[in-house]
């Protein structure tokens, strides 16, 4: 007769089930947080201002959200794999300056676009190498890059704001295509492309694998370094696109251009539900995050609340979102002994 | 660890010497008392933030504090409100600001260590949160009018040519922290926590609590930076701390604090502070704008980590 | 169900000759030979530390052997990395399944070698079909395909990983103690799957210590002992296998009973330092009862997964206890945390000194005084003098060989590092000392020194609970040995009645002959 004790050997045991249940409920809460907040937002702002719930207003929001949305899309990929890129803001500033300048000297719009993307990709390549090959933590590497790019922008700016129209007629704030602002169309197009890439290509799926379990991903034959660098390059490209639309939409580049975009993009990703702990997330969710944040900024102004309160609310929402993520991960890992 | 650190501090010392000579050659004004004075006044604030940052990183577990600048801003406003709106004596208000700073840091520490949230995102979130809170509370304005009870002595006078805030705040802070880290149980526990959190736990260290304290201390130093700034500039700005986190982190890393924790000494941070201050000052004299200093800092940060990566740190993992 | 090997399957797939591998002073493998044929199922057995895992890791490309040759299907085989090994056809499934938790089972099956149409686009439908047929062919429910990996039970995850290995046309499948996390019915399902695979030609290499499964599991049984071949048989003769497993290299003679004075038989209740009654922690161990008197050395033996370290952690306050009672120093004791335990007088020497023990960036002195900080400090300030004294005394007492207290801990040999850890704990003057594999990976000379230290400690009245996987160590040192199996104490042997075979038998869940 063996002393095989079913209750000892059997896993998961009863104690684990309840933890799993709580964790599943929290996951549900986490996933529904954003839609819930969006609904609350819409209700609150509709009630507090007459001019909120109009087509014109929403088109405005959508246009204004272009850069945050574009950069947020790329940022999702980086955060998905456990990294971050805070150099995006000033990178956009530098590229915007380049775009405005080239446009000012009558360069062919296609060439401008190519140049912009090239610079963006280059910045991304540098960031990616610092992180993946030189193993510098992404926060430190991109913090350094951000500082360098801020200086570069400042140098280029040289005390002169540079003004420019959109490089292409279609990229201005007002231009529409069948009634929808072209900027919105471009944004949506990018999201569809990235969504498709992350869901339908080997490359895209490997990003999720790396985010979920980097070691297993390496063992599975995935070239993790290359994929991680590629994610940074993609961010660079989205930054370039954002720079182009920014010039077309805002029309002026200054020394501070881009400074505030980084945090908004990261907030959009995090609030949208992509976790920096890895493996969990989606480009489309970031779009939801963008919507939330941009509606927030808009509604708050319309409601007459001093815009200074923006940061507060966004900060709180970021913390709340990550809090839930943290509790869920804690519950999942508490099932092992504490020295694990 | 002594052997590891020896290299870095000697290297920094040599670099400082070279930098001073170089800067002196670039501009004859460099060694002038006035210049050195403002150099020191400015470094006092950043130097305080760098202490807090060093401690947070030393504690390990991915510790980093991006919110130091915003904590400074918010503490600054708190100080202003207490000293002006509430009419407190500025010295008392300074104390109040420091308590506020501790609470802000405590909040960070608890979120990160009790709720398992990634330090990066949390302090990024509080960077936003605290910064906005500062703006909101001050209504976007600066606060003036607390030059009473001799408060300005702290920031605007000198003793033998050295600013009071250096003599009475900066140097004592570094000395105190250095002493605590090497001579007290808490300091030792911080190094243990950063070196091997599991081993620390089974040796009886309360890892979570230790790390929470480090974040609170970072908040305290941010607040101290705010008080010094207020006394020096005689106004409390809601944007006083913007961009300071880059400086604080760079100085800490340059000074030899390893980003994964457990390695580094605040004396290294102090040397790094001096080096950065010298470089900044030299650049300013050469007519190079302050934004360039930011770029330089970025380069220094990346190079510091690269160099550390290449140098041999004994690894416990085969 | 015995697998019948057909004639055409007599080709050896993997052959290893004279494989040796050392880690520092530990000779994990010494001139080990091994071969396995197509479709054959071989069980690799041995005590903890016999070298089974290391050998498999050499096959899997995790470790490069110091010497020896391997060949795969006749060709020279020397994988430069785990990826290399996988690409060559050697697949390994470890005890704790490690896949992509956030991804679906289907993705887990095909990650890294997805089916694609042109341009690298995933052919989801095609893969779903392949996935379904793969799972069907292995008897795994294909409805799992769409589920997130982390929502599956560990058993199911394991099956998925095996399916993944199979889909890569593995020539050799290595399973490392696969059933240690499975229930009986789950194990059966696994065995069916494995039988199927071997029928199809995959060679299966199976590390196990579960004697009750043997006949179900393999065609041939290879035993390793102390890193060397210890024989093999083709029928599961339990006694013969135990015989081959038992270690003969007892480098020390049985210890003098240090805890008893000659002639003293009566131990008073007041000598009981630790009494454990019915201790249970769900998922880890159940109904553990034993006691340790002052000056006694009580040994806990068991194979991997038996629950020994878990018991230790529970006593130390690092593992939650569901039921049972602990009486320490005559009073009811509820361990809350390591801090708590240390101040109550319980010290724990962790199993893995690298990961759980040493502060790799600090020096010898700092490592030694680490658990003593509270008593070295007055108003929070450490007394340099006291610290120096304690460290110096400790280093002398344990004859730690180091270039001085300021030397980095990592400059010390493994044995000396362990001594420092021991000294660290002893400095806290514990009443109960729990040692988890105190001499693992340590050279013979230092081993003996440490054993003497332990004996001296016992003599001075400290109660010692020693977890060990080394039979000679536990036989020589322990006054009483509790053998754990699957979370319960299955046998208790006093010093004079304890023998290797008795212990091993009990450890593998054995029937008593």
Fold and architecture overview:
The complex is a heterotrimer of chains A (340), B (318) and C (513). Chain A has 340 residues and is mainly α. In chain A, 72% of the residues lie in helices and 2% in strands. Chain A has helices at residues 6-9, 14-48, 55-64, 66-80, 88-104, 109-132, 138-157, 182-200, 202-212, 214-219, 224-250, 261-272, 283-302, 309-333; strands spanning 162-163, 176-177, 180-181, 252-253. In chain A, the strands form two sheets. Chain A has a two-stranded antiparallel sheet with strand order 1-4. The longest helix of chain A is centred in the N-terminal third of the chain and has 35 residues, at 14-48. The radius of gyration of chain A is 22 Å and the shape is globular. The model of chain A is unreliable at 1-16 and 335-340 (pLDDT under 50). In chain B, strands 1-2 form a two-stranded antiparallel sheet. Chain B is mainly alpha-helical. Chain B has helices spanning 2-26, 33-58, 68-85, 90-113, 119-138, 152-156, 164-183, 185-195, 197-202, 207-233, 244-254, 266-285, 290-310, and strands at residues 158-159, 162-163. Chain B is globular. The longest helix of chain B has 27 residues, at 207-233. Chain B starts with a helix and ends in an 8-residue tail after the last helix. Chain C is an alpha/beta fold and 513 residues long. Chain C has helices at 52-59, 82-88, 105-110, 124-137, 154-167, 184-199, 214-217, 238-245, 308-316, 338-344, 353-357, 364-369, 373-376, 384-397, 414-426, 444-459, 471-477, 500-507; strands at residues 12-23, 26-37, 41-45, 67-72, 75-76, 90-93, 172-176, 203-207, 220-225, 228-233, 272-281, 285-293, 297-302, 323-328, 331-332, 346-349, 377-378, 381-382, 432-436, 463-467, 480-485, 488-494. In chain C, strands 6-7-8-3-9-10 form a six-stranded mixed sheet, sandwiched between helices. Chain C has a six-stranded mixed sheet with strand order 16-19-20-13-21-22, sandwiched between helices. Chain C has a four-stranded antiparallel sheet with strand order 2-1-4-5, with helices on one face. In chain C, helix 14 (384-397) crosses helix 15 (414-426). Chain C is globular and about 75 Å long. Mean pLDDT of chain C is 85; it is low at 1-8 and 249-267.
